[in-house]
Write a structure and sequence with these properties.
Elements lengths: L14 H13 L9 E5 L2 H11 L2 E4 L4 E5 L4 E5 L4 H11 L6 E10 L9 E10 L17 H13 L4 E9 L8 H10 L3 E3 L2 H11 L3 E9 L10 H29 L9
Parallel strand pairs: 1-4, 1-5, 5-9, 6-7, 7-8
Antiparallel strand pairs: 2-3, 3-4, 5-8, 6-9
């Protein structure tokens, strides 16, 4: 007799129905309240900044927070941290068919020329985490949607600011800073920075057919003990650079909405 726990037969409700129900339950916002353009973030401070810049109202669910600024057709979701949460939020928001997703994340800089507060526009991510394998084979590269990255870069340049572009190493290994073998591997790869979500977001979005880009902010330089992020250093990053990061993200989404450009770059 077949084990019901391993069955996906006719007794199961449609996947999309469960995803829609879970989206509202986890984020506190009904599917029809979401805008077509959604910013993804890890931190409460970015939700607070979004409310300050747009006047939107926060909604809190069982696990995440969200808000929508209807006048600019932009929503934001704070989904938490790490690759499992990154995969989950893409699965959930894919059920409402957004026009574009943009991840505003923090990252650790790995190169000497990087400073706290620098922008990094990733062109690819190294898949050194455990979630993306459930979406695509390891031979599939983790890439953002190029057209969204183009919009982001244009906004930064128009502001008169600078950004770096390169590869981000995504890992689910915390306290890697104390592992000499891991540090040696990072040096060999020549990755520009390290984070915990990008590769998962890129691969799961590709799987779910949702255009997703990312703009990272260097929040620490973990190559040295002095550069490791602490509570006080994190507070300074939010107070000094959060609004600029959010400004680029919001303006990017406004530009995409205004121009109405097709962002899906692949044939299915």
């Amino acid at each position: 007799m077949e084990n019901p726990s391993n069955s996906t037969g006719s007794n199961f409700p449609p996947r999309e129905d469960i995803a829609l129900d879970m989206l509202e339950r986890y984020t506190g916002m009904a599917p029809d309240e979401y805008a077509s353009h959604i910013i993804l973030t890890n931190f409460d401070e970015y939700i607070a900044g979004f409310l300050k810049l747009t006047g939107a109202e926060i909604k809190s669910g069982s696990a995440m927070d969200s808000a929508t600024a209807k006048d600019i057709d932009c929503s934001i979701i704070k989904f938490g941290m790490g690759s499992p949460n990154a995969a989950l939020i893409v699965d959930l928001v894919a059920s409402i068919g957004p026009e574009a997703l943009l991840f505003l994340g923090l990252t650790g800089g790995l190169k000497k020329e990087l400073q706290v507060g620098d922008f990094i526009l990733p062109i690819a991510a190294i898949r050194d985490e455990g979630a993306s394998i459930h979406y695509m084979p390891t031979r599939v590269p983790a890439l953002p949607a190029f057209k969204i990255q183009k919009f982001v870069s244009q906004v930064i340049v128009e502001r008169g600011w600078h950004y770096h572009s390169g590869v981000v190493h995504t890992t689910d290994y915390r306290f890697w800073e104390y592992d000499d073998d891991f540090r040696a591997k990072l040096k060999e790869e020549r990755a520009l920075c390290i984070d915990m979500e990008c590769a998962t977001l890129f691969v799961s979005a590709f799987k779910r057919k949702v255009p997703l880009g990312a703009l990272l902010l260097v929040s620490d330089i973990p190559r040295t003990i002095e550069g490791i992020k602490t509570k006080s250093r994190a507070h300074r990053v939010f107070s000094d650079f959060r609004d600029r990061h959010l400004d680029v993200g919001i303006e990017t989404m406004k530009d995409i909405a205004t121009r109405g450009e097709e962002l899906r770059e692949w044939e299915w």
